[in-house]
Amino acid sequence: MEETSSRAVVSQSICSGCGVKLQSELPDKIGYTPASAMGRNPLTCQRCFRIKHYNEIASATVNPADFLEILSQLGKSDALIVHIADLFDFEGSLISGLHRFVGNVPVLLVVNKIDLLPKAMNPNRILNWVQKQAKANGIWASRVVLCSARKNIGFDRVVEALGEMRGNRNIAVIGATNVGKSTLINRLIRDYSDLEAELTTSPYPGTTLGVVNIPLDDGKMIIDTPGIVYSSRLTELVEKQDLQTVLPEKPIKPTVFQLNEQQSLFFGALARFDFVKGERQSFTCYTSNALTIHRTKLEKADELYREHRGVLLSPPGKDDLDKLPPFTKHAIRIPKGANKDVLISGLGWIKVNGTTGAELVIHAPRGVKVVMRDSLI
Ligand SMILES: Nc1nc2c(ncn2[C@@H]2O[C@H](COP(=O)(O)OP(=O)(O)OP(=O)(O)O)[C@@H](O)[C@H]2O)c(=O)[nH]1
Ligand SMILES: [Mg+2]
């Protein structure tokens, strides 16, 4: 068997793309790689090969107990914990109770995907907002940085923060699924070192399946981990083919609706927003540009949903309607004079300019997190 060079990634029995334990007996099971490939370096599983070369949809699930075990091991290992969150689904992608799992260690909070915000945003304002919201959600980060791993925005700040906080320790990257952990590590390695490593990334949650240790020049490691699955995120519930409609690819172009009370908005058939009571006012929707929003009268909304979901109101398409949990209602009161967002985790958010206050009811698939928060924008 070939020797693993110190510059290449990981041990021979672990896939260097996704961290899964390799096997060559069961071609239909995860971790499969043909016996003839076992000597290769770097060595990846067949699933990673297919994701990389054929953009195959090949998400897999990791047992939730395994995440907790990984987190607690990392907490005990004295690594610098880097928690990646996704600005498009900030509250949905935070690891609630993080410190219960990893203990009282310093945490660097990196908020990724800032490229998705509309252009011309003030970065300091966003940073203040993120710091405040992280605290409000129980994340005690020693430091917060914003970046885009895909577009290479803010990376100097990420590298600087890592350099200052790391000391002589490993760096462990953790977070919910699909927030960009592996993309971010790939960028760090590609642009800021001469190491060779390529972690598997994909647009679908559940790409990384096990811990991947990438040796650094100084004998320490940068550690990729599987994303934590939160079923409170709509992105974990929709069918994979609908993710490309729900997840923004480009900077969001917000859609503004001037609504009278007793009007409703449908986001495909994924969620419904009722403006029940209040003066005529504007509602700004920050959702993927690919998602169609329909306006209707509240009194007609039930009928429209019954008769047109799956076709006019989609995604999901007709065949997948029953795969999504039924809607539950969330009553929300926007106080007078407050600028608030209503976040529907994974779908985006609706900004309410609450000069005069508003009473709302949000219908979202059961289990999906719906929260009111101070406006991001
Ligand atoms: N718009 C945008 N997309 C990003 C950014 N970083 C990563 N992505 C995309 O997000 C998706 C998920 O990226 P991954 O790196 O696989 O995410 P992950 O956190 O490792 O996901 P798991 O392994 O499933 O936990 C991919 O489609 C990436 O291209 C970013 O800064 N901006
Ligand atoms: Mg990953």
Describe this structure as you would to a colleague:
There is one protein chain. The protein has 2 domains: 57-228, Rossmann fold; 236-374, no CATH class. It has 10 helices and 16 strands. It is globular and about 65 Å long. The model is unreliable at 1-11 (pLDDT under 50). Strand 2, helix 5 and strand 3 form a beta-alpha-beta unit. The chain has 377 residues and is an alpha+beta fold. The protein has a 6-stranded mixed beta sheet, with helices on both faces. A 5-stranded antiparallel beta sheet has the order 7-10-14-13-16, with no helix packed on it. It has helices spanning 46-54, 64-76, 90-93, 98-102, 123-136, 155-166, 181-192, 234-237, 240-246, 298-308, and strands at residues 80-86, 107-112, 143-146, 171-175, 212-215, 221-224, 255-259, 263-267, 271-277, 281-287, 293-297, 327-334, 338-344, 348-354, 358-365, 370-374.
Topology:
Layout: H1 46-54, H2 64-76, E1 80-86, H3 90-93, H4 98-102, E2 107-112, H5 123-136, E3 143-146, H6 155-166, E4 171-175, H7 181-192, E5 212-215, E6 221-224, H8 234-237, H9 240-246, E7 255-259, E8 263-267, E9 271-277, E10 281-287, E11 293-297, H10 298-308, E12 327-334, E13 338-344, E14 348-354, E15 358-365, E16 370-374
Bound molecules: guanosine-5'-triphosphate and magnesium ion.
